[in-house]
Amino acid sequence: MEIPSRVRRDTPAAYTVPPFPSLFWPPQDSSIILYELDDMWKFTLFWTLILYGLFHLGAVGVAVLMQGGKRTSSWKYLWLVPLVYALIAGAEALIAGTLVGLMCVSRRCRSFSATGPGPPLSKQRTFRGFESRAPPTAASKNEPIQLANSPKSLAGIATRAFGLGIALTAGATATLTLLLCTTSPLWRLPFFLTALALFHFLEFWTTAAYNTRAAEISSFLLTANWPGYAVAHSVAALECLLTHLLWPTTNNNTRWTTTPLGLGLEGLSPAVTAAGLVLVVLGQAVRSMAMIHAGQSFNHQVQYQRRADHVLVTDGVYAVLRHPSYFGFFWWALGTQLVMGNVVSLVGYAVVLWKFFSGRIKHEEAYLVSFFGEGYVDYRRRVPTRIPFVP
């Protein structure tokens, strides 16, 4: 059997072969699209390697400029380093998402070759229209091609991965630069950005890896509880910035100290910062472990009907924490505010999150009792949440 990447069928007379697989003037005949898909992702991979090399050469160039031919290093161009590596991370994330999408579509469309040429595409007829021409396999029934603007859009996932890649790299680079090269306490701001970017990436990654069918754009949780979620983080960042501008610390080791609202707590701040870092790492680890261990039984939304694959998980991290994902986020969020030296946001986060999780747990457990009966009642009696004042 001839594969689509080597055969054209029903090529329109007016069609001109482009100099490379076309992303900008796509043909309207389905057989030509099948012809080009294989070469398209190979072409993209080729330019990925080229761009990757150019970006790293740029980073080396920045390092040379920093030396400036002097005996001592010059930090004049230091700001270019996080910018260059932010571009690297963003480009890699975007291209990786594009490659995955193109390869998936290419492999998917191979199954159509045995049924002959397909009808032309139109507004009413897209790739979904060719599913009926594929062999009746389980994959063709359960894994449709995800088009743009759908909840599982590969384009939407790649775009968000691109943004998170930039945020994570820029935040981590700025944090390390400020910590290692200055005595400024403002490393806390890019640290907060880094923690947020890593959190949202892991939300999607753990879902995609261990509960694949539930993975979609909303799994990033970037717009969860919008706009309150965004407002809370914006207020926290603003409080941290104003605190260090209006009440600068007088301690010699300023990078580890802070003066929250000028309350004279400088002596406590290194210990508070360390405690916050521990909570951030612990909270993130527990939440990710909970999502991984629960697998298909985990969902970001409260489930009102029991699925066939929904089981009561009571071992692993669930043996010591009844709602480990909630526990993890609660203490992760409070840890970020301890690191940032925020007082107002710390109290606000604690109150809002306690109110949210206490209400959600009661609501969710009412359905869990109806799903699992006495089994869940006994589990609830034995295992605590370890969230303050939530039994």
From TrEMBL:
GO BP terms: methylation
Residues passing through the membrane, by range: 45-65, 77-105, 161-180, 186-205, 226-247, 267-290, 338-357
Residues making up the signal peptide according to the UniProt record: none
Domain of life (superkingdom): Eukaryota
One Gene Ontology cellular component annotation held by this UniProt entry: endoplasmic reticulum membrane
Chemical reaction(s) catalysed: [protein]-C-terminal S-[(2E,6E)-farnesyl]-L-cysteine + S-adenosyl-L-methionine = [protein]-C-terminal S-[(2E,6E)-farnesyl]-L-cysteine methyl ester + S-adenosyl-L-homocysteine
Topology with respect to the bilayer: Multi-pass membrane protein
Keywords on record: Endoplasmic reticulum, Membrane, Methyltransferase, S-adenosyl-L-methionine, Transferase, Transmembrane, Transmembrane helix
EC number(s) stated in the UniProt entry for this protein: 2.1.1.100
Pfam hit, one: ICMT
Keyword Lyase: no
Major place of residence: endoplasmic reticulum
Subcellular location: Endoplasmic reticulum membrane; Membrane
Entry GO MF terms: protein C-terminal S-isoprenylcysteine carboxyl O-methyltransferase activity
UniProt cross-references to InterPro entries, sorted A to Z: ICMT_MeTrfase, PPMT_MeTrfase, TMEM170A/B/YPR153W-like
Name of the protein described by the UniProt record: Protein-S-isoprenylcysteine O-methyltransferase
Organism: Parachaetomium inaequale
